[in-house]
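Journal club prep — side note

Before the paper discussion, L.F. wants everyone to see what a predicted structure for a comparable chain looks like in token form. Sequence:
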Amino acid sequence: MDITGELVRLRAFRPDDAPAIAEALADPRVVAYLAQWAHGPYTLEQARAWTTEPATPGALNFAIESIADGAFVGSTGFHDIDHHNRHCGWGIWIGPPHHWGKGYGTEACVLSVEYAFRFLAMEKVHLYVYAGNDRARRSYEKAGFVSEGIRRRHYWRDGALTDVELMAVFRDHPLYSERIAPIA
């Protein structure tokens, strides 16, 4: 299923996304705030595997594509999907950096959260944001996320343990509640 907004489309990964993924994740500016990729370069072979292998159980991932030119501009996805308790984790990256500042991340965030509420029947979507990642934090706030607290010394980054902020958005947030029916 494709999820289309004004700026971006969320879609399934394709094998031809692999070079763009490898290029983006080879850029230290893109991976600076990504815990899972902070340990070295991301190869073309790893990118090919990402586009062809099924997601791990409890996860659902999307490629982010620019509506204007069809370019691959990033990735977004859900993890730890808990249908019983109706919450899931969510993450995103946009890259290479020439795609930053165009609204792609904010729109992908809103589309993702709406998808989680509408199709996954979630009540809550949560994420972690590194201390200092102000660009991402502003984007998340625009999509309705609020702070739930700080996890102290949670991820190893740049030779030290780093704090992350836990943020969440709920189904009844005004941005979503008027467009999504309540869960019975």
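L.F.'s comment for the group: The helical segments are 18-25, 28-31, 44-52, 104-118, 134-142, 174-177. Keep this in mind when we get to the figures.
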